[in-house]
Amino acid sequence: MQGSANLTIMIKAARMAGRSLAKDFREVENLQVSSKSAGDFVSRADIAAENIICKELTEARPTYGWVGEESGETKGEDPTRRWIVDPLDGTTNFLHGLPHWAVSIALEHRGKIAAGVVFDVAKDEMFVAEKGCGAWMNDARIRVSDRRNMRESIYATGLPFSGKPDLPATLSDLATLLPVCAGVRRWGTASLDLTYVAAGRYDGFWERDLNIWDTAAGIVIAREAGAIVQGIDPEHAAEETGDVICAPAVQFDAFAKLIRAS
């Protein structure tokens, strides 16, 4: 696809970080790992990838703001634009040698996500979108699935761990959804869950208590592929609360009604 200069910068940064991460992934047993909290780890690879992305993006656009999972937020001279970065979404998968993790970079303009890149390094799949320009995976246009029957559909979510307070709500969701669908997957990388809805691989995704860097890039990609993305509470946007529900328009209402009622 022909993207903007900003999208070209984002793709380049994601690929550079991906090369660094791929090298460390091949030597995962040697990674220096420190614990941030139970079940949530930060590795040398994670920090190195964020430093690569930060350098590339800030050199190319020095006035933009920045928010990253590891480094926090830095205000820019241009208050209307900021980068939102998760250098390694799926850290636990990465540290266990599971090849399902991604680099996620989004650009926010005046409070709205304008562009997103999610790079699945292990599978060499680059998901990209700009608002109003559609969604792409590598050189192919992607669209959400057109399945209408929930009994033929599979969905994705995240399962709370280490005493997170949303466990009862998620268990209730599963008890309601599992009897009426073809299955639920939990692969541990929210950015890829959203892009898999965009590519028609999943028929819907929901999860609570996510951070903006987990979802920003995936949300714009899913929307540009034809998905509806809202907060689980319809009065509040997913980008504000971190409680996300995403599905193709043809079954969003049915899926959202089920999750919201559970």
CATH architecture of the largest domain: 2-Layer Sandwich
Overall SS class: alpha+beta
The level 1 CATH classification of the largest domain is: Alpha Beta
How would you sum up the global shape?
A: globular
Helix content: 25-40%
Reading the helices and strands in chain order gives HEEHEEEHEEEEEEHEHEHEHEH
- Tell me the domain tally: 2
Percentage of residues in strands: 25-35%
What is the third-level CATH name, the topology of the largest domain? Fructose-1,6-Bisphosphatase, Chain A, domain 1
CATH superfamily of the largest domain: Fructose-1,6-Bisphosphatase, subunit A, domain 1
Read across the widest sheet, the strand sequence of neighbours is 4-3-5-6-7-8-9-10
Largest sheet: 8 strands, mixed
Unreliable spans are none
User: What is Rg?
Assistant: 17 Å
**Overall residue-averaged pLDDT value:** 92
Helix count equals 8
Number-wise, the strands total 15
Termini separation: 40 Å
Question: Any chance you could write out the topology, listing elements then pairs?
Answer:
Elements: H1 5-25, E1 33-37, E2 40-43, H2 44-60, E3 65-68, E4 72-74, E5 81-89, H3 91-95, E6 102-109, E7 112-120, E8 125-130, E9 135-137, E10 140-142, E11 154-157, H4 167-177, E12 183-185, H5 190-198, E13 205-207, H6 212-224, E14 227-231, H7 238-241, E15 244-248, H8 249-261
Helix pairs in contact: 1-2, 5-6
